[in-house]
Structure of ATP-dependent RNA helicase DeaD:
Amino acid sequence: MSTPEVTSFTELALSAPVQKAVSIVGYEQPSPIQAATIPHLLNGDDLLGVAQTGTGKTAAFALPLLSRIDLKKNSPQVLVLAPTRELAIQVAEAFKTYASQMKGFHVLPIYGGQDMSGQLRQLKRGAHVVVGTPGRVMDHLRRGSLNLDGLTGLVLDEADEMLRMGFIDDVEWILEHTPPKRQVALFSATMPKPIRKVADRYLSDPKEVRIATDATTAPRIEQRYLIVNGFDRKLDAITRILEADDFDAMIIFVRTKTATAELAEKLEARGYSASALNGDMNQALRERTINRLKKKQLDIIVATDVAARGIDVERVSHVLNFDIPYDPEAYVHRIGRTGRAGREGKAILFVAPREKRLLHTIEKSTRQTILPMDLPSGSEVSNKRIQSFKELLTETLANQSLDFFHDILAGYSVEHDRSSEDIACALAYLIQKDKPLQVADAPQPKRRRETEKPNNRESEGRRTSERRPERTREKSPRTASKSDDLNMVKYRIEVGRNDDVKPGDIVGAISNEAGIDGGAIGHIKLHDEYSTVDLPAGMPKEILHHLRKVRICNLPTQIKLDNGDGASDSTGAKPSAKKRKPKADAKKTGAKASKGKGEVKAKKRKPA
């Protein structure tokens, strides 16, 4: 649908109080999603909006819905469902801002991890708009503390993210408990089949708005990648980047909750103001961490995708992907945390040698080339340290009384016949011993890429066994609870015990061919004729297609989603039984090989 020609908010039929609030905030021209959406929602139409994060979706639904609020009714008239607590808080704050000129207006965010008694008291007092996560909204509906009889508007914000996080059934349950005549607006960055089914079932003749983008990542974000492998090498690389690249604030993304705490501790030990942000932290602590970042009391946050959802901090100048995401959309959401409010941003992606396939998938999805980068050289880091050292000297000379030390060093110079310069150099050496001003160049990853050596081996089993020591080293506590940290999906592969397959063979084949770190491969269960393996959700179709061709113990995996133990193919036969039959026949025919060849030649000559 084409975007209406709207050049000013004054052209939209928003209520007078909302128009005044928009003017106070300083908005002048609506974004494309706002210009296309607001007229339909003001008209009372259901709406299906497809647009990327950062396009102004919140104002697109909040402004028209606020214009239709009846302040005399003190019961929920609008319900907004959001996938995360952070996003629920952000949306609630936006409603409060846009309703600043509406006297007596109340908005209430409700989410897990927050005191239930406080929410119950506020719901009893009344709220015109409720913004909540699906789980906590369901809790209140079951308790009877949230009454939706007077609901006139319902918004599903970031529906694809709610699907990815497993909330879609909860969303449908909530929709079934809303009045039949209510306006529904569904917003999603993509439109997978399950979301389309929800729209078809619960939206009434919706108007569809699609905002096309030239690229899924903002052009003002500089994107680069670095080939680096292993936790310790990545940590050293981060340290170099932090020292050589000027940054205001940074968000570092990792895959697991345990890795957030470990990496934050390592960075703090190296002198950086860093803190973890993950789903295991209570809400008060998470909010305090984000506020510290806003107030410049904290410079680095190490976060998981879910925990960082909805963070909007203008001073975030850098996003660093410590672990490459398996889902290209997750990459887009991650780097969207920088380059906010029209500022320039930088996004750095760490890629292990065997993860290059994931890098190419992200580039294909975002339609942008991510440029390679080199680690800052030793001389670059040295220059930065020397500059900081000189600035410290200048500040000390300008602000400190040094007479006492001058007398001591003058006496030392006479007693030992050493010049002032020699003494100053000795003192400088002592000061910088723990953080030397001279930094050597880092070894290039190519020279130490042990994981690539076995690629020339012919045997998959040998390749697996040679890689196992590295995988064992990396299975530290940060990857021990991988099933809890990652959203996993069960797949079936058509090789099993009867094929002499071991779990290590499966791990080796998948990690080598799909670029998935061994620590991120979940539970493996061997059956006689097939096996199941848990893999991270959201893997691109290209990788799954490639995995179907991968051979384990010289047999094709034929990987597919698991539909239950013992599932058979369309013929009713066990797939593994069919594929082993030719293998068994081959063992019988050592003496008949020449005869077989002769028969084939005869058959070829006959038609000629």
About this structure: The chain has a mean pLDDT of 79. DSSP finds 25 helices and 20 strands in the chain. The longest helix spans residues 378-399.
